[in-house]
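G.,

No rush on this.
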Amino acid sequence: MTVGRNPELDPGHTAPGESRRPIGVFDSGVGGLTVVRALRQALPGEDIVYLGDTARVPYGSKSPRTVERYSLTCQQFLLDRGVKLVLIACNTASAQALPALVAASPVPVIGAVEPGADSALAASTAPRHLGVIGTLGTIRSGAYATAIAARDPSAKLAAVAAPLFVPLAEEGWVDDEVAAIVARRYLEPLFAQDPQIATIVLGCTHYPLLRNVIARVASELAGRPIAVIDSASAMAAAAKEILVAAGAPEPNQRAQAGRLDCFATDTSRLDELAPRFLGEPISGFELVDL
C-alpha cells in the first residue's frame, strides 16, 4: 500500500497520546461521507473530523490549479484541528493535488486513487482487464492509468467519465429504472473499449451508493459476474494499515465508539443528504468559511 508522506516533516512514529488524535477526512461535498462510513466500520473507536467543501462543489469540472488550491485549504483546516492522518475523500483532488498535499502535511496523507488501484489489482487475475468510471476531472487526469501501470504494466485499462451518477446518488435514485438506464449508457462504451473487463473501479466517492445497479448492469453487459471495487473501502483499509504500522494500539479496541465532528462550507440540503451517504443519523454540520 502506498501512502503519501513528507519524510522531512513526519517523525515516523506514534507519539504519546497520538492514538487519541482524530483522523481527518475532506471532500468537495458529501460523497466523502462514504469514506467516513467505511472508516467507522473498519475503525469504530477512532475519532473523525470531516470537512465537506460544499460551497465550491464540484471539483471535477475545475482546473487542476484550482483543485490544488481548494484542497490545500481543506487539508490545512484539518491539520489545524490536530489530525494524525488525512484522507482525501475526493478522487479529483487525489488525482490532481496529492503531491502538493503530501508536501504540505506533517502527517501521512491517503488519497483515493492508489488504494483503489491496489484493491482492483488484488481482485483481478492476470491478464488483468480493468475499467474505471469517475468524474470528468479524475478520468482526464489519467491518475488511475498511471497508478495501475506502475503496479502492473501489463494490465489493460478502459475509462469513462460518468458525471450523472453524482446527482443520482444525491437524489437517492440509486437502484431504480433511471439509475439502470444511466448505468447502461456509461457502461456500454466502457465495455466497447474492452469487452474483457473483469473488474470495475468506482472512481468517485458518490458511486458506492450505486454499486448494486452498476454491478448488475455491468454483469448483464458482460454476460458474466463483474467485480466492483470502491475506493471508500480501500481507503479505510489503508488507514487501518498505516495506523497499526505506525505503532498505534489496535485501533478498533476502544470501549466507546469514536466521535464524529462534521464541518461544511455550505449547509444547504446536508440534513437530507448526509445520512444517505453516512448510513446513519448525523447530529449536524458546523458551517465554516475557508
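When you get to it, here's the other one too:
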Amino acid sequence: MFGSSKRQAFRPTAYGHSRRRRGIPRWLVLLLTGIVLGAGGLLFLQKSYGPTRLTVEQSEQLHYDLNSVNMDKQRLQSQLNQHIQELKEAHARIQSQDAELIERQTEIDRLSSDVALFTETAPEDPRGTSPGIRAVSFNFADDQLDYHILVMQDADKAQPFTGEVTLTAAGRYSNGRNANEELAPFPVSLERYTHLQGTVEVPEGFTPREVTIQIRAQGSDRVSAMRVIRVPR
C-alpha cells in the first residue's frame, strides 16, 4: 500500500516562477569601459600634445599684445600712405623741374647764340687794342656816376687777363672851377669779354663832362686800353 520511497525532483511548472539573481550584462561593462578609456585617452592626448590652456592673466596679456599689434599696423599703414603721397608729390616736382630745365636750357642755348653773334659784331675799340673798350655808358645823378663798360679781347688773342680800371673825370665845380678828378679804381677780369657795371662817388659839387677810361694789367703801369667818353647831361 505504500508507494516507492523515492521523491520525485521538483519541476517548476510553466505557471510558476523562481527568484534568480541576475548580473550586469557583459556588453554594458565593455561599453562603459571603452567610454572611460576613450575619455581618459583624450584627456591624456590633450594634456600631452594639445595646445596649452592659457590662464586669465595670459589671456588678458594676449589681448593687449594683439591690440598693440593692430595699433602698430594702423600706424605703419598711415606712415606708408604718407610716404607714398610724398613720393608722388616729389615725382611731380621732378617732372616739373625737368620741364623747366628743358625750357631754361633752350633759353640758354638761344642766349649763347645771341652772345656769339654779339661778340662777332660788336664794334671794335677805336685804338685797336686787345683787350679793348668796345662800348661805354655813363649816367650822372646825385654826385654818383653809374657806369657800364664792355671790355673784349680779340678771338685770336683771348687769354686770361686781370687788371685795374681807373676813371679820370674832367668837369666843373659849382663855383665855376674846372678840374680833373680821379675816381675810385675797380678791378677787371676777363677772357673773351666782360661787362663792368657799377657806381663811383663823385666829389660834392663836381659835374663830370667827360671821363677817361684806362685799363692796366695787374702789376703793370702800361696802359692796355683807353677811351674818352662824354657824360650825357
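Strands lie at 132-141, 144-152, 161-173, 178-182, 186-190, 193-201, 206-217, 223-230. The longest helix spans residues 56-121.

Enjoy the weekend,
O.
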